[in-house]
Specification:
Blueprint lengths: L1 H30 L9 H25 L3 H24 L5 H9 L1 H13 L5 H18 L8 H24 L4 H23 L8 H25 L5 H8 L2 H12 L6 H30 L1
Helix pairs in contact: 1-9, 1-10, 1-11, 2-3, 2-8, 2-9, 3-7, 3-8, 4-6, 4-7, 5-7, 5-10, 6-12, 8-9
Length: about 300
């Protein structure tokens, strides 16, 4: 019983770390929203991930270099999958709305538990199904203002969603038997290489980058990516991918709340109800297992 309690404790800590990642993601979207004039999307990604790689290597570089070649390759590959989501999303935004893309990419909250169920043949539980349904309904209300049309941008956004799903599952696979801090370093390396290659191939080298854009790049590279990359990778050593997908869906809530508080965006009834649905999903996936555990102990 003590082993079960300890495992549950570490899972809760891991879930809280993922929730912090969602908070930082939501804040990052607000911070950099109006600061990217003068820099193209791929170059923003390339510079952001270069700064992130330098940051994590400065802190955890020795641990990264001490890993065996298979772990290094696994981390690098996982990082390229993650950056594919960013790149597909950046191009997709040229052809679709931010609301449509946010909703489509957030559908990883459905695809992650479905993938786990498919690969493990283990039903995640009706409380997870209910949590996924609540989060999906909440995200639809949070980001969709009109009809969801299908175009090239939506298809690219769907590709980004699949990359996000694959990334969460790959981290779960590789972090079990690897140093999560070193693994985060190699993920940053893989992402940096692919993002830089895409920027060099598809976009001209920027002649000038303004101060506001540099501030956004530095913030997004350090707090917005290096920190969240380490937090999520370490957290997934102790929690499961379904929890990760559900908890990351709260980033939309955090972004909306921070926008309301700091830049004067309106808090509508729609946003309030949608946020309540997502929170209900998160609470159900966390609280029901705990209640069942206590009932089992009482018996």
């Amino acid at each position: 019983m003590a082993v079960v309690d300890a495992k549950r404790k570490y899972m809760i800590i891991g879930d809280l770390a993922v929730l912090l990642v969602a908070l930082i993601w939501g804040a990052t979207n607000v911070v950099i929203r109006d600061a990217l004039d003068g820099i193209t999307p791929f170059w923003f990604c390339a510079l952001r991930f270069f700064i992130a790689w330098g940051t994590v290597m400065l802190i955890f570089g020795r641990r990264a270099m001490a890993m065996d070649i298979r772990a290094k390759a696994a981390g690098t590959f996982t990082g390229t999958v993650f950056i594919c989501a960013y790149l597909a999303g950046a191009v997709g935004l040229l052809y679709t709305t931010a609301g449509n893309q946010s909703f489509i990419i957030s559908m990883s909250v459905v695809f992650v538990p479905l993938s786990v169920w498919l690969f493990t043949r283990k039903f995640p539980g009706w409380h997870v199904v209910a949590a996924v349904a609540l989060c999906t309904a909440g995200m639809a209300g949070l980001v969709l203002d009109g009809e969801l049309s299908v175009n090239v941008g939506d298809l690219l956004s769907a590709a980004a969603m699949l990359f996000v799903t694959a990334y969460i599952l790959l981290v779960q696979k590789f972090v079990t038997n690897a140093d999560p801090y070193g693994l985060a370093c190699w993920q940053a390396f893989g992402g940096m290489i692919l993002a830089a290659a895409a920027a060099l191939v598809f976009e001209p080298i920027p002649a000038h980058i303004g101060g506001a854009a540099w501030a956004a790049v530095i913030y997004a590279g350090t707090a917005g990516f290096a920190l969240t990359l380490v937090l999520q990778t370490v957290a997934q050593k102790y929690t499961n991918p379904t929890h990760v997908a559900i908890l990351l869906s709260t980033s939309g809530i955090f972004g909306s709340v921070i926008g309301v508080i700091f830049i004067g965006e309106p808090m509508t009834v729609r946003i309030f109800i949608a946020s309540a649905l997502i929170l209900a999903g998160v609470i159900s996936v966390e609280a029901i297992p705990a209640i069942r555990g206590r009932s089992a102990q009482a018996e």
